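G., the chain you wanted modeled:
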Amino acid sequence: GKFITEPTPGDINKSVGTFLPLFAEIAPQERVPTLQRLLQDPKKGYEWPNGIPGYSLDSAPQGPEDDTGVSSAKIWPPVEYLVQQGFKQYHEWLVAQEVAERYFNAVVAAYMNTKMIREALSATKPEFDGHKDFVGWGGLAPIGNFIEYILGFDVDVPQKTIVWHVRRTERHGLQHLKIGDFYVNLLCDARAAADAPCYLTVTSGGAFALQTVVAEKVVHHRIQEGTVTLEEG
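Predicted structure as tokens:
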């Protein structure tokens, strides 16, 4: 009736697989807050500086330590995405976004040091790891993570639906986004603060459903062909 986190006495191993039930959407709703607390626990959770590796902070190192005595825990994009998407599927958007942004910023810092992207990232330092000269799934962070969690777009092409979580204050958006047989441009003007109104300009080559989420307020729009300006917040 209990999770086994010590394969041998005193040797803790709390796998990130703990969050798999969220991703599979089989976790009871009442257990989601417990998983969130575990995720964010600064000592026993998964709040590593750069994102989510394969095990918790209080787990025994799963690999050799580096020359400074720091665990060589690595962040592999599919593992990171599994946790993000799991919380997102349970409508814990702010939890997913915080994890995603921490990982994204760490990838940017590592890229600024090396001018390249590789398939894995150190959990503690701005350094890449993995196969040399191979992006692989390392491209998830600067592309998928950026669009879905930093800019806040959730696109369902078959249903011709876009959900836009507008949180950023600088001018941002997406251009030339293909939705079936037409293209869409979505732009949010710069604003002075996160609680200031948002002015969105949407240009579309066809009809689709747009759902905006601003300061947790949800508004549904039916966008038609042409250009429309929306004020939110």
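DSSP finds five helices and eleven strands in the chain.

Shout if anything looks off.
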